[in-house]
Structure formats: C-alpha cells, structure tokens
Design brief:
Blueprint lengths: L8 H4 L4 E6 L4 E4 L1 H6 L11 H4 L4 E4 L2 E4 L8 E6 L5 E10 L6 E8 H51 L7 H31 L8 E4 H18 L3 E6 L6 E4 L1 H17 L5 E12 L2 E10 L21 H7 L5 H11 L4 E6 L3 E11 L11 E3 L7 H4 L3 H8 L4 H19 L3 H14 L5 H15 L3 H14 L1
Parallel strand pairs: 9-11
Antiparallel strand pairs: 1-2, 1-7, 3-4, 5-6, 6-7, 8-10, 11-12, 11-15, 12-14, 13-14
Helix pairs in contact: 4-5, 5-9, 6-7, 7-9, 11-12, 12-13, 12-15, 13-14, 14-15
The structure holds adenosine-5'-diphosphate (ADP).
The site of adenosine-5'-diphosphate has 21 residues, from α7, α8 and α9.
Length: 476
C-alpha cells in the first residue's frame, strides 16, 4: 500500500507539518501546514529533505546522512523556509511501517505552540478575572439594593403603626409597598446566595437549635396564605427526632420555605403536607428525611430534569402566571448537597408533586440518648401531631376498618409507593412496617396481600411491588 491521495486526507489537514521522503531524501508529499509554513506553493515535492533541514540532513552518495533519525522523543530542529529564513521546530522522524524505505517527518512550530499556550493561559486568566468581577459586581449590587429596600420597608412599617390615622386607600397602598419590598428582598437574597454558591464561597453556620420551633416558625410564615387559599395543611414530625439538633437553622428553614412557597404557589385546591422523619444515625449524626407534598398542577415527566437548573422555570407561561426567578430549587439543591443529602422529586401532571430531601444534622450526647446509637431508625407508627390527639382517635387509627385507619393506610401506602418509585427501598420498608401495624386486625386475605407486598419490597422487585400494591388497594 502506498501513501495515496485517499488515505492522506486527515494528515493533509493536520495542524502539524508533515513531510514524507524516500531513501534518497526526496520529498514525495508535504501537507498543507508544511507547504504554508515553509512558504512553498506546490514545489516542495521533489525537493531534498536537506533543503528544509540543512543542519540536520546532509546529502550523501546513497541519499542522505543524519544523526537525528528514529528517536522516540521529539527533537528540537531548525526548519528553513523557501526564502532561507528559519524557525525552531519540535520534530519526530520515523520510517513508515506501511511503506518500507519511506520516512515521515512530523514537526510543530515551537514559537507558535508557545504562543498558543500563552494565549490559552491568558484567556483562562481573563475568564477567571471576569468571573471574579462578575461575582463581586453581583455581591455589591445586591448589597446596595438591599439598603434602599430595607429603608423603604422600615418607613412603611413605621407608617403602618398608625393605621387609625390613615384612610383605607393609603393603608392599602402601604400594604402593597410592604409586600413588594418583601418580594424584592427574597429575590435579592436568592441572587446573593446563588452567586456565593456558584463562586464556592458559601459556608454553612451550624449551631444547636430547637428543631420543632424552627418548623413551627416556617409553618407560621405560610399558614395564613394557605388558609386564605382554602387549602389544608398537615405537618407530622417523627417523635424520635430529638428536641435539639445541630445544623444551619436558617438554611434548613430556607429550603423548607422554598418548597412550601412553591407548593402554595402551584396548588389551587387540596392540601399541602410536610413530613419529617429521622432515618439513620451514625455516631453523633442524624439523617433527617423531609417530604413536602402538594395536590397542585404537577410537573410533566419531560420537564423534571430541567427543574434544578439555575434560572429554569418549567415553561414561560407558568412564570408569567406565577412569577419567580427560577433560582429557588437550584439553591435548595446546592444547600441540601452541602448538608450531605440530595433532593428528589416525584410528580404527576395535574395530580400534585412531592419534593423530598435528606440532610445530616448533628446531635449532642444528651439530646441523642433516646435514639439508637447506630444504623437505621424505624419510624414510629404515630407522629407527634397524632400523639397529641386524644386516646380515642389513637385507638381509631389502630383499629382496622375505621375512617382514620383507612386514611392512614392510604397515606402510608402512597408514601411507600413513592419511595419505591424513587428506588429508596429502605424507606419503603419503613412505610411497609407501618402498613403492617395498621392491618394487624384485618381479615386474613388482606394480611396475606400485605405479606406479599412486604416480600416484594424486601426483594426490591419493582413489578411485584406494583402488582402487590394494586391487589392490596383493591381489598382495602
Ligand atoms: P421560582 O422562584 O420560579 O418558583 P424555583 O426554582 O423554586 O423557582 O422553581 C422552578 C420551577 O419549578 C417553577 O417555576 C415551576 O415551574 C416548577 N415547580 C417548582 N415547584 C413546583 C410545585 N410544587 N408544583 C409544580 N411546579 C413546581
């Protein structure tokens, strides 16, 4: 096989210079880069290789002489152009395995290579500088924006302290200004958080805090709007979570705030639920699992992947109708990851969505005594919210066939199936245990269906779980 036209195409367009010459030293092929850099038109072929490398090759009776042939390492040589000016190259000369008696020289212009790497380095530095300037700019602008917004808000609040002295139109306008300032505050804070997270400058500030007080505070911020919209709100917290945990209270609250305000924003009828479980303990660390569910507009399967991207809203008409910057979920995802967990979403268009996430918090020795010292924590059947209820209600939930029992069964089964969809088999097993407790007094056929479902979950067999779930649902 010869080095014919057809197999020369890739080397013809190579960036490095390629020359092919024979035993006599006569060049039989020069690629485009070689012709251009050595400033020949088409008259490079037929020349002797010593014309290009006079310091390297010398004419000899049987062709050429050189000391530089066949080294594995590239050599620093001097290449001469047609006009006898020269430039340094890094070259490798090998004999062709395809065509014995033919040699190939591959050479790179050293100055050009250095120039290119200097250019790349310069572009990299310029990019870094631009990123730094951008981050500083965003930080400065958001900080500067915060001051006047705080100023307006403070003054509006002062004025609103004397509502009795104002007519109702003025009060209404002031309330609108107050709300707008609140919204602007949220946007400014989001942009600031986002730029800090992007620049890797975000640090968590963990400290010991009262867990349920934090949840109550988050709830208090949304409850009036939830009731205004006529929605139901249910919060359940596993009693196994200690009163105090160690974590970044502000940021955990912020994540929940975001999920709850989205749930509120995208739900017109039905309910919103917030559930918190302790799911594992490793030494002085506790894994908390949060679920925020709504019965709102839901999210298309195809749009789910876009959700956590920055500035992403599922579609433009949604953002026009509901507002928002599309930064919230991305910030939540990054914060949750900083806390050692991850965010998941399960949703069905027009049925509702469940956003869940797990995070790790610390527990001090005295706070964690009631928990198992290591490993998975089994959820208890009744949450703290239910424990506060009277004995009768408690008994009704346990007694198979009552309204409360049915509702609880349904709730636990749908959570179980959600965990299976998310392939979180461990958590599915926990809900399975609760279902088993709720069906302790059920007829034999229901108990058998429960057992089949339990076995399918233990085997992590998705098809059998869905079949078993269907069977059980029919019996209930
Ligand atoms: P935004 O500030 O625009 O709400 P997010 O990042 O919090 O930004 O949410 C991004 C998009 O994800 C929303 O615009 C909406 O399309 C979708 N989304 C988030 N939460 C829900 C939910 N509970 N139900 C339906 N869609 C949601």
């Amino acid at each position: 096989m010869t080095l014919g036209e057809s197999n020369l195409f890739p080397i013809e367009n190579a960036l490095e210079m390629i020359l092919v010459f024979d035993q006599k030293g006569v060049i039989s092929y020069a690629n485009d880069a070689a012709r251009k850099k050595l400033e020949y038109e088409s008259d490079l072929c037929g020349r002797h290789i010593k014309d290009v490398f006079p310091n390297t090759f010398h004419a000899a009776e049987d062709g050429f002489e050189t000391e530089y042939l066949f080294g594995n390492e590239p050599q620093n040589l001097t290449a001469y152009r047609k006009n006898l000016t020269c430039f340094p190259v890094e070259a490798k000369i090998v004999d062709s395995t395809l065509n014995p008696g033919t040699f190939i020289c591959m050479a790179n212009d050293i100055l050009e290579k250095e120039f290119l790497s200097r250019e790349i380095e310069q572009v990299r530095q310029e990019n870094q500088q631009a990123m730094k300037v951008k981050s500083e700019f965003v930080a400065n602008v958001t900080h500067e924006l915060r001051t006047p917004v705080n100023g307006i808000l403070g003054n509006v609040k002062d004025l609103l302290e004397n509502v009795e002295e104002m007519d109702s139109r003025t009060v209404k306008s002031l309330r609108i200004i107050e709300r707008c300032c609140g919204d602007m505050h949220k946007i400014i804070n989001n942009v600031l958080d986002f730029s800090k997270l992007e620049a890797g400058k975000f640090t968590l500030e963990p400290r010991r805090f009262h867990f349920r007080n934090m949840l109550d505070y988050v709830k208090s911020k949304h409850i009036s709007k939830i009731t205004e919209k006529g929605l139901g709100f249910f919060m359940t917290v596993s009693p196994q979570i200690p009163e105090y945990v160690i974590g970044d209270e502000l940021r955990i609250g912020q994540i929940l705030d975001n999920f709850l305000s989205n749930a509120l924003k995208f739900t017109a009828v039905g309910k919103i639920t917030l559930e918190v479980l302790g799911t594992a303990r490793v030494k002085d660390n506790l894994e908390l699992f949060f679920m925020v569910s709504d019965s709102g507009i839901g999210i298309d399967k195809a749009d789910k992947d876009k959700l956590f991207l920055s500035f992403s809203q599922v579609d433009a008409s949604i953002s026009r109708k509901y507002g928002g910057t599309g930064l919230g979920l991305n910030i939540c995802k990054q914060l949750v990851e900083l806390m050692g967990g991850r965010v998941e979403v399960e949703s069905e268009k027009n049925k509702g969505s469940t956003f869940s996430f797990s995070i790790w918090v610390g527990i001090s020795e005295e706070d964690g005594n009631a928990l198992p010292q290591q490993g998975e924590i089994k959820p208890m059947l009744f949450s703290s919210a239910l424990m506060d209820e009277d004995e009768e209600r408690f008994e009704n939930i346990r007694r198979y066939g009552t309204q409360e029992n049915k509702e609880n069964l349904k709730k636990n089964l749908s959570k179980l199936i959600l965990c299976v969809e998310m392939e979180n088999w461990e958590k599915a097993e926990m809900f399975m245990d609760t279902v088993r407790q709720l069906t302790e007094e059920a007829p034999q056929e229901v108990k058998r269906a429960v057992l089949r479902l339990k076995m399918a979950i233990q085997k992590e067999n998705y098809d059998k779980v869905t079949a078993g779930y269907g069977d059980l649902n029919q019996l209930l």
